[in-house]
Design goal:
With 635 residues, the protein is of the alpha/beta class. 34% of the residues lie in helices and 15% in strands. A hairpin with a 2-residue loop joins strand 5 and strand 6 (253-259). The longest helix is centred in the last third of the chain and has 21 residues, at 541-561. It is globular, with a radius of gyration of 26 Å. The structure holds NADP nicotinamide-adenine-dinucleotide phosphate. Residues 181-183, 269, 307-313, 315, 330, 332-333, 432, 455, 479-481, 599, 601 line the site of NADP nicotinamide-adenine-dinucleotide phosphate.
């Protein structure tokens, strides 16, 4: 039974009793506890403890009892000052028990978020006088648009945000399918400048993420600079005046405006794939793409098909299975689907208390949760020696493959007819990892059937499969993903000499310099643009939104401080960067046959990597924070 915080508060002192505090520590991330306690006490016994996974019973008890005792005396709200650089490095090394190099230190030192606005860039001196009417247009008020807007707000640069939705939150305003929630833990899927946000669950639900983003928009002054119901239709660069002429459609007609700088924060999963199965027009029931889930749709007692087992399809199957009469789960390609600790669980009152009363715990919990991603590069690079001994890719990846295979077998109760169809023939980490929300277990229910025969065509009453079966359904959920290749789409973007961005990209799909800039498109940036999804030793997307928006802000700062009006990437730099990117990508798992490249939205129809940044995370961070001014032209 969970105790509430108030039940365990001492009525005389207002403090929780020791048993409550101990429970809080036991439930916490013990790595974060270890570092936070050491930061306060400098206790060598705590410093000597290994990482949580390697703690023996005695070490665990030592850590828990010392922390409980410290909190009994010292618990209080607040956050410690950022430690000096040397101490910070010592704490970060202590956190992971690994000595990091300078490259890694620079990329990671702000992750624990002790400063008010980590990753914020600033004027070199006093803010210069801005040209009259100067403004930046940010397209999109989702995570990345808000990151940009807050940077601009802090710099005092006027801006306007345009968003086609009625509320802030981007993808989180439109997705509302059953059990939608983040599948990366919320402590990493949040902005580092909003301290200790009171998430209700470890993995925030979709509506809570939207509320969070609305809260950010309102608290940091972005909301009043946002024009909702504005859909960008056309952006044309005026070479004479170095401004962007924008046209947006609104419920009241077309609106024109000008911006000196255009920042596209459109998201990657913007354009849903059309469910164009043969016979689709004959189907008499409802076909839904999850991004267009009808409000109030009642699935009770219905016969439903869910097509697709990406992150979206997998997330919704178990809750749908509980409501419907019959559910057909269509799988075209098996996925590696893995469990997450505390997925779907509320943050316990004890842990909430700890977050509010153990200064530094929130910071180190963030750091440790992000640190779980530091090693991902290791999954992607082949080990030829290991392969020569009969290994498939490298020891780390093969071990994960074995663990996940065992997981599939356990979840399906050893049902061979399921297992033989569920184990992928490609390596884990080739595609975007999918998180299990009870998907495998749901397949074992009496009212659920896994269908691996392909869809031949739809009829008025259901789906005909390639083995000749007719599956009668009322509702088809086409969780078939998004047209990822369509960056900056469907709006029209025209740069210098009237060039259309889509013509520029016609050869082999969208490209950019650092995922952000395109030649002939001056004063224009993309956040989460082509080849920017960090694959390797990354830090989670919200941090990257801060990093990319800080890059755009650095360009604007320099342009404005030098009294110029135009910043653009040189074509030579764009070509050189992309050639190097293709070489770097070629050695990665997902471009290798064993990574199943033809079945991966990270790779485009031209066979080149398009979504992902192939660089080692800290290296990509360096490229995006230490601007190489030789690659840019400012005039
Ligand atoms: P997705 O990963 O592209 O998956 C699409 C699925 O539909 C695949 O299983 C695909 O099969 C199948 N499919 C596509 N066309 C089909 C067809 N004609 N017939 C049968 N099956 C077809 O798309 P998604 O699941 O929407 O996920 C996209 C991304 O959104 C994720 O990778 C993630 O980054 C993000 N996301 C995040 C969350 C979260 O954080 N909570 C939740 C959902 C999504 P094949 O594998 O054979 O191509």
């Amino acid at each position: 039974m969970t105790t509430t915080a108030s039940e365990s508060l001492d009525s005389a002192t207002g403090k929780p009793d020791p048993a409550f505090i101990r429970r809080a520590v036991e439930l916490a991330d013990l790595n974060a506890v270890r570092v936070a306690l050491f930061q306060h006490t400098k206790d060598p016994e705590i410093a000597a403890l290994p990482v949580a996974m390697q703690l023996d019973d005695a070490g665990r008890e030592l850590l828990i009892s010392k922390t409980t005792a410290w909190l009994e005396k010292n618990a209080r709200p607040g956050m410690p000052e950022e430690p000096p650089q040397d101490e910070m490095r010592q704490l970060m090394n202590l956190a992971t028990k690994e000595e990091m190099g300078d490259l890694e230190f620079d990329a990671r030192r702000e992750l624990a978020a002790f400063q008010p606005f980590p990753f914020q860039v600033n004027w070199t001196g006093k803010r210069p006088e801005l040209p009259e009417g100067f403004q930046v247009a940010v397209i999109g008020s989702g995570f990345s648009g808000l990151a940009m807007a807050v940077q601009l707000e802090n710099l005092g640069i006027p801006y306007v945000v345009l968003d086609r939705q009625p509320d802030p939150g981007g993808t989180w305003t439109i997705h509302r399918y059953p059990d939608i929630r983040v599948d990366t833990i919320s402590i990493t899927y949040e902005f580092p400048f909003e301290k200790n946000y009171p998430w209700k669950e470890y993995f925030g639900r979709g509506a809570d993420v939207q509320s969070y983003l609305e809260h950010i928009s309102k608290k940091y002054g972005v909301y009043e600079n946002t024009r909702f119901h504005h859909t960008l239709e056309k952006a044309t660069f005026d070479e004479e005046r170095n401004v962007w002429a924008l046209e947006a459609s609104t419920p009241d007609g077309t609106v024109s405006l000008e911006a000196n700088v255009l920042v596209n924060a459109l998201g990657t999963f913007t354009n849903p794939r059309t469910p164009n199965f043969p016979g689709v027009e004959d189907f008499g029931g409802i076909i839904i793409h999850p991004s267009r889930w009808p409000k109030g749709l009642d699935l009770t007692g219905k016969r439903v098909a869910v097509i697709g087992n990406g992150s979206t399809g997998v997330q919704m199957v178990a809750p749908i299975a509980e409501q419907v009469e019959q559910l057909y789960v269509f799988q075209r390609t098996p996925q590696w689907i893995s469990p997450r600790d505390k997925y779907g669980k509320p943050i316990e009152p004890e842990v909430r208390w700890l977050l509010d009363n153990f200064p530094g715990y929130w910071n180190w919990w963030r750091y440790m949760a992000i640190a779980a991603l530091f090693g991902t590069h290791g999954f992607l690079v082949a080990d030829p020696e290991w392969q020569a001994q009969g290994g498939a890719w490298n020891p780390m990846n093969d071990k994960l493959r074995d663990d996940l295979t065992a997981y599939i077998k356990a979840q399906t109760n050893g049902d061979e007819s399921l297992i033989s169809r569920l184990i992928p023939d490609y390596a884990p980490f080739s595609r975007r990892p999918v998180v299990d929300n009870g998907w495998y277990k749901a397949l074992t229910r009496d009212n659920v059937e896994l269908v691996t025969d392909s869809i031949e065509h739809l009829t008025e009453t259901g789906i005909k499969t390639s083995d000749g079966r007719m599956l009668e359904v009322d509702i088809i959920v086409a969780a078939i993903g998004f047209d990822i290749i369509k960056y900056l789409w469907p709006a029209e973007y025209r740069g210098t000499e009237g060039v259309d961005v889509h013509d520029l990209w016609a050869t082999d799909g969208p490209r950019a310099y650092l995922g952000m800039m395109v030649p002939q498109f001056p004063n224009m940036f993309m956040l989460y643009g082509p080849n920017s999804q960090p694959l390797s030793g990354g830090t989670g997307l919200p941090i990257w939104y801060m990093v990319w928006s800080a890059y755009a802000a650095q360009c604007m700062i320099r342009m404005l401080e030098e009294g110029h009006s135009r910043v653009e990437v040189k074509r030579e730099a764009y070509d050189r960067y992309n050639a190097a990117l293709d070489v770097e990508a070629s050695s990665l798992l997902l471009m290798n046959e064993y990574g199943n490249p033809e079945k991966n939205y990270y790779i485009n129809e031209h066979g080149r990597i398009q979504v992902s940044a192939p660089w080692y995370g800290p290296e990509f961070h360096r490229m995006c924070t230490q601007v190489d001014w030789n690659d840019l032209e400012i005039s």
